[in-house]
Amino acid sequence: MLLSGIRVLDLARLLPGPFATQWLVAMGAEVIRVEPPRGGDWLREMPPFVEGIGAWFAAVNRGKKSVALDLKHPEGRELFLRLVQSADVVVEGFRPGVMARLGLAPDILLARQPRLIYASLTGYGAGSRWRERAGHDLNYLALAGFLGLNGPRGGPPVPPAVPVADFGGAMALLIAVLAGLFYRERTGCGLILDASIFEVVVTWMQPFWLAHQAGLPVAREGMPLNGALPCYRVYVTADGGAMALAALEPAFWRAFCEAVGRPEWIPRAFDPDLIPEVTALFQSRTRQEWEKLREKLDACLEPVLEPEEAIRALAHLAPAFQTEAFSLPFTIDEQRLAAVGPPPRLGEHTIEVLQGLGLQPADLEDLRRRGIIKVEGV
């Protein structure tokens, strides 16, 4: 496996950090969730539930281990520092300063393990003047200008159903960790990394702001890829379904025009005045009729699937991706990488991991009795 032998201590909660570390699991790393003994990650208790565990938690924590440890207690903190000595990566998603208040600032951890990759996932960035400000996906999208572009013209902004900022932040964190491990292999030195979810969205928006300054107004439904071009739009069908047409290249647009018997449209791919005619054409047939045409056509034309349809379509569109598993969207030597195993119960691996530090059963029982650690089911 790509990351066999790499140990990751994951202190992050909710979606973004755990989503990133689940990729590391799929690449072969050992990822140990370090959670507070009372309650653990909040996602554990968020409905709906799968086999007694919150489905959202299960979706981003497959194949991991869980150690329930009170980092606010001096003995719990010392146990964590001992774990750091055997770790390659620490991932955390607290606000800047929280780890320092716990006595676990990056410099303290690197003093224990100089080869450590310390990775923070923050909202606005450790160096931002907003670093102490609370935030979630919707806030980052709002401030970066993304949310203001989402929704129909004339109506209020529409929050995306998928937390794209969170997942984008997770990918930035993952890239930073992998780059940090590569750097460490070349230099032997650890690193302190910080990935900002807000700044990820800002990087997405930069091309649009540059285009805006160059004279192309950034607006809802008025740009090339959000409805201004007849060749690149979502069209409603006769039965209320929808088709996504993305025939930007001349060959695709030509193929579409010829297939629907409108060769006169070929030179008008980028003519907004053509949109009403194409709209009327799509409304003249059902989605099923358009799908039947699509089967014989190579023109970037696909149905807009509803969630239930998309889940059913996984079996033949992407058989490696099933809702009960987590596979990476690439292969290594034609082999698919996946996070194998169920999500961990809170404290399920506390005994196993701490015994690896040399703690004896009597020591572990004393720590459990005093609430410094938690063992699954106890």
Describe the model.
The chain is an alpha/beta fold and 378 residues long. It has two domains: 7-203 and 322-374, Crotonobetainyl-coa:carnitine coa-transferase, domain 1 (Rossmann fold, 3-Layer(aba) Sandwich), CATH 3.40.50.10540; 242-303, no CATH class. 37% of the residues lie in helices and 16% in strands. It contains 14 helices and 14 strands. The chain has helices spanning 16-26, 55-60, 74-84, 98-101, 106-112, 137-144, 164-187, 197-213, 250-259, 275-282, 287-294, 307-317, 350-355, 361-369; strands at residues 7-10, 30-35, 49-50, 53-54, 65-69, 89-92, 117-122, 191-196, 232-236, 242-246, 301-303, 326-332, 335-339, 373-374. The strands form four sheets. Strands 8-7-6-1-2-5-14 form a seven-stranded mixed β-sheet, sandwiched between helices. A hairpin with a 2-residue loop joins β12 (326-332) and β13 (335-339). It is elongated and about 80 Å long.
List keywords for this structure.
378 residues; alpha/beta; Rossmann fold; 2 domains; 7-stranded mixed sheet; 14 helices; elongated
What is the topological layout?
Blueprint: E1 7-10, H1 16-26, E2 30-35, E3 49-50, E4 53-54, H2 55-60, E5 65-69, H3 74-84, E6 89-92, H4 98-101, H5 106-112, E7 117-122, H6 137-144, H7 164-187, E8 191-196, H8 197-213, E9 232-236, E10 242-246, H9 250-259, H10 275-282, H11 287-294, E11 301-303, H12 307-317, E12 326-332, E13 335-339, H13 350-355, H14 361-369, E14 373-374
Parallel strand pairs: 1-2, 1-6, 2-5, 6-7, 7-8
Antiparallel strand pairs: 3-4, 5-14, 9-10, 10-11, 12-13
